[in-house]
Fold this protein.
Amino acid sequence: MAAKTNKAREAASAQRAGTATAVAPKSFLDKYFMISARGSNYSREIRGGFATFFAMSYIVVLNPLILSGADSSGGTLGIERVAAVTAFVAGILTILMGAWAKHPFALATGLGVNAFVAVTVASHPGLSWPDMMGLVVLAGLTMFILVLTGFRTAVFKAVPEGLKTAIVVGIGLFIALIGLVNAGFVRRIPDVAGTTVPVGLGYDGKLLGWPTLVFVVGLILTIALVVRKVKGAILIGIVVSTVLANVIEAIGHIGPSVQPGKDFNPQGWSLVAPELSKWGAPDLSLIGKANPVGAFAHLGPLAAVLLAFVILLSIFFDAMGTMVGLAGEAGTIDKDGNIPNVDRVLLVDAFGAIAGGGASVSSNQIYVESGAGIGEGARTGLASVVTGLLFIVAMFLTPLVHLVPFEAVAPALVVVGFMMVSQIGKIDWKDIGIALPAFLTFTLMPFTYSIANGLGAGFIAFVLIRLFQGRAKEIHPLMWVVAAAFLLFFGIGPIEQLLNVK
């Protein structure tokens, strides 16, 4: 009897600590998602699913704005249609990730790729939205094949452990910066005067507006709850901040910082002013509109291939870096540095590019904001199923999305960023062949606002330094291939000029 009691206490202690332990499953769902085995429980997974949704729901509002421009023929995708399809595709893919790959990783339209798509359409007179989305589909199909052949998984395994840790740290810094920028606590400094400092505190060096106060209050509350080890600390912080934001907006009518036809309001909400929007039936007519061969006809084979190559490299390495960082924070990487069901994770991510392009909302990928749910305790795919279902609901009930401004979820991203950066001690700082590439990796991710840029600099530096050290034998053959690919990625501008590609 005493032995059984001790085992039960050990299991309960392990669950509270969020560590995996061999606990007998309690139900079919528990066994299927390995909830007890990963040291979690239903309440943690559900809370984590909600936290992730609230942290990334802004994409339903932001993506339509990024993809709102007209193409060469004057055609537009339509804000309402893009919003509906963005939520729908994100919901389906996130459910697939949770139910099949069984990880707490949510997917949605990738920031960076969608901006690249929008700028490319605007700057190429012969290109239409279906043509550009067709290139995204081709990049996704190529990545899907690379996963099926095992190449993408092999690349993941070829990355040294020190660089994998640097990826976790870099994504933590990136997440924290996203939170600070979303809250208006850190802002870009206009470069009219030719300043050398790209960002600063608040607006003109001052913290302004009620939205910033919402962020500060939310951050203090979230930190206090985390320090006190309150269950649901991150989700509670989001909910309380959201309530405060809605009360302030109802009383003060502050409005967003950017509104059509009006001057910039530095004291307004970052993007979404909290409000209860009207119900509208979703329009999913964009699905299936992509044209995979259109760009080749309008731009020529060489220009089309180069554009598809840039998209492929971005989604290939962004997702790999994000996956490593999130899995490291969730504690699902084993002692050999492997992630369970990694092939399934990468297949779903590759399918995200195909589905996103095919639905005209740009490539979908694993979101770093999934860290909000992991920080809440999510460890399994059940959390992703919850997040995915909430996206499907959001497709019909836009008020659920519009109620939560950036400033309400930003504190969660800052706290989760801290949790991920805390792994920096695992890097071997005495080995410059790992330390310097690691440093470049985790500094360039936030500084360039791109996971892929940080990975590229770190991988290239690792290969070069090992070569300079006379330790080339320690470089995995695939690291040479990846470093060469990143050299092409960083040199795409000069290559286009050399080949006279416009």
User: Anything to note?
Assistant: DSSP finds 22 helices and four strands in the chain. The chain has a mean pLDDT of 85.
